[in-house]
Amino acid sequence: MTKVTRVGVTFPPELLKDFDEILTKMGYESRSKAVQDSVRLFVSERKWLQQEANTEQTGVILMVYDHDIHGLESELTEAQHHHSNLVTSTLHIHIGERDCLEAIAVKGKAADLRHLSDELATKRGVKILKTVIVTV
To answer: Taking the model in full, what pTM does it have?
Structure first.
């Protein structure tokens, strides 16, 4: 059996309330399991940011953008074509009158994925960009 280390964590009351509500809705049996899952996700995300530039990574870039911004869609498409060696698939979803969600599956060297992610994130009209890298 794996050894477990106990730690104490302090929360602002509102954050703990929100956390507990979500845990209940999701069906978690304990806070400990939820905190472990949250920390695991945090560590996975941070490990990606610190990976060696040449480390091969696989993940998804999730992006919400305003398709009414003149020229944005062509800029986003051009960036993906420019990095076609990294982009393995793209899913485009209309989520509102002006907003679109794109899920871009990516695979390549960590430095190249960071560059693509940064390039897309800084485009005028991109509202949210989240890069999720799978580290196993």
So the answer is: 0.69
